[in-house]
Design brief:
Two copies of one chain form a homodimer.
Chain A (H helix, E strand, L loop, with lengths): L4 E5 L3 H12 L4 E5 L5 H8 L3 E5 L10 H13 L5 E5 L4 H9 L4 E4 L4 H16 L4 H15 L4 H8 L3 H9 L1
Parallel strand pairs in A: 1-2, 1-3, 3-4, 4-5
Helix pairs in contact in A: 6-7, 7-8
Chain A binds a DNA duplex through α7 and α8.
Chain lengths: 172, 172
DNA sequence: ACACTTGTGTCCAATTATTTGACACTTTAG
DNA sequence: CTAAAGTGTCAAATAATTGGACACAAGTGT
């Protein structure tokens, strides 16, 4: 059980139960919330490894705006916890917007249990990856240098370091 | 015309023409390819600011595998050029997979001209953003430290720096 | 309750990096 | 062609990083 706590947020009790059963075997703890109102405090208290968030809350409002708002709010406050969205209304635009707003993944109802587990595991694994500082630096330097067509003076300027330092960094 | 060259790849000549007309007013140059075979060399030669890639090439094969393959190939070779995907088959799974494979955005046919232009501009703008080195470092340090629950020894270890250095970095 | 391990805050001296300024030489653009 | 901008390289001054050390706090298992 290397995968810790999961927080599931959905306004449908039946789905909450079904998901809980589905995930119980893989995750140490499955916490459920039937509304996102208490999400921020619950997350702060429980520090879940991932969040599964339903996009349709207020009955009759299925545009997903509701869920999108909560996604943004949670992601802004806890940018390191992966959030997987789940929705009954398979809408490409919605999915794209969600991912661009920081969602780790996007699954549609009815879901496949194994797929849901895999997606959550993947999200947690990816969120747990840590890059050494010098590697991060090297990659970023390379990218910026690229964007400046190799102009070291400008690249150094944009990076906020001196030209000679950049020169040394790329030499090694 | 701050937005440079665009490369459009689609096997349908009619769509190629339509897109070309649509984008001509906004971008300096619109290059078209009717098959992705020559994409890699064309990109290397023309260095476009963005790429608009259709997902369905071989006639009758509409699963998008084709386009996904090319997306990966192009993105691996030119990770700094944003790739916007376009497809007639609005499939959420496909869209999600595309974004997770490095696509900058995903639009469906029939497209809205203004939206297409906006999406491409956004992709180019976002790809052009450059973060100073020290800001990148500070953010990453904070994130790793977070993931280690404040354990500085482990965080320093994972970051590949000494404990004292990390101590200094967070102090300032 | 006890020893044991792990981590913290802090210092030092030795080693490395970074910066600033300079100089002769290419490239580039008007 | 000339002026402006960039490159490669050096040196000396300054700042950052490291490894080692030490007393002390917190948590582990027995």
């Amino acid at each position: 059980m290397k995968y810790g706590t999961i927080l599931v947020i959905d306004d449908n009790p039946a789905i909450l139960t079904a998901v809980k059963i589905c995930l119980a075997g893989t995750f140490e703890r499955v916490i459920t919330l039937n509304s996102p109102e208490k999400a921020l405090v619950t997350i702060a208290q429980e520090n879940p490894a991932a969040i599964l968030l339903d996009m349709n809350f207020s009955l009759g409002v299925n545009s997903g705006q509701e869920g999108m708002m909560w996604l943004s709010a949670i992601h802004r406050k806890f940018p390191d916890i992966p959030i997987v969205l789940i929705t009954a209304y398979a809408d490409v635009k919605l999915a794209v917007r969600a991912l661009k707003n920081g969602a780790a993944d996007f699954v549609t109802k009815p879901w496949d249990n194994d797929e849901l587990i895999r997606v959550l595991k993947d999200a947690i694994d990816k969120a747990g990856e840590i890059i050494p500082l010098d590697q991060l630096e090297t990659e970023h330097v390379r990218k910026v240098l690229n964007k400046c067509d190799g102009n070291m003076k400008r690249a150094a300027d944009l990076l906020g370091i001196s030209r000679q330092t950049l020169y040394n960094k790329v030499k090694n």
